[in-house]
Amino acid sequence: MTDTKHNHYIPQFYLRKFCTCGEQLTQFDIRTGKQVLGAPRIFGAINRLYPMPLERYLAEEIESPANTAIENLLSRCSPLSLQDRFAIAKYISVLQKRVPAWAEWVDERVEVNNIFAYQESQLLCLRGRNPSHDDIIETLLRQIKDRREQFSNSVWHEVVPAEATPKIWHLIVQMGWQIISAEEGKLFITCDNPVVFDVTNGLKSSRGYLDFPLSSKILLHASWENGGGIEFVVASPGQTKAFNKSIISNADIYLFGDPKAIEIATRQ
Questions:
Q1: Rounded to an integer, what distance in angstroms lies between the CA atom of residue 139 and that of residue 149?
Q2: Which of 50, 77, 120, 248 is most solvent-facing, going by the fewest CB within 10 Å?
Q3: Is there a contact between 192 and 252 (Cβ–Cβ < 8 Å)?
Q4: Dist CA 223 CA 48 (whole Å)
Q5: Is 243:236 a contact under the CB 8 Å cutoff?
Q6: Pairing between strand 176-181 and 218-223?
């Protein structure tokens, strides 16, 4: 069981699939260009990000069955069962929602935040008018900030479970899956917001798609093109580069993967 004080929004099992330097991978900050080489346990995590029940749910109900299913898919030792497809689809739908980028998306849409913003603006107008009251105003501003954060987090935590948005993972299961191997000598990278989907048309659209790198060598491309089947293909020339570019565009702050692959992807 993961230490609940140090919550991984990107699972360690997932990050290990992108280790190419022994048991290590590179974290690349797209804002600063800073690179850090380290073990998966130190990346993709924030202290006290989830309450204990949610952390337990993620570990036991989502990650555990999906880890087995992903191993089955990557090893290709046996045909992928419907149960495995459901496990992977749930994993992807939850991973999309458990990351900080999604928390920010939820926060922007919580209407009650307008009330907190109004309270803050009123207090800010009063600040400085009477210096003897400034300490009280600062205390109230901190309290409003804390309450706003607690409320937004509670709303976010409620929508993270797969059961909160069943239509998403049902659609993923129904779509056709292409399991794409990277071109020879090329590697896929991932990021802190690794589920890439068609924001314009949505998954329901006939043109809808979803891309999700499963490892440095394998990527899942889901669409409505091949009628719900599963096929294993090798990336066409330039396709690995294109997928990596979409991962970079979808990243919030960090890229993860092989240092050389990240270097090539970010300079092209």
A1: 16
A2: 77
A3: yes
A4: 36
A5: no
A6: antiparallel
pLDDT per residue, tens digit, the chain (268 aa), is 444 578 999 999 999 999 987 899 999 999 999 999 999 999 999 998 999 999 999 999 999 999 999 999 988 766 789 999 999 999 999 999 999 998 888 777 665 556 556 666 776 777 777 676 677 777 766 776 766 666 666 778 888 999 988 999 999 999 999 999 999 999 999 999 999 998 888 888 988 999 999 999 999 999 998 777 899 999 999 999 999 999 999 999 999 999 999 999 998 6
How many CB atoms are closer than 10 A to CB 187?
A: 21
Q: Specify the length of the chain in residues.
A: 268
- The residue type of 163 is E
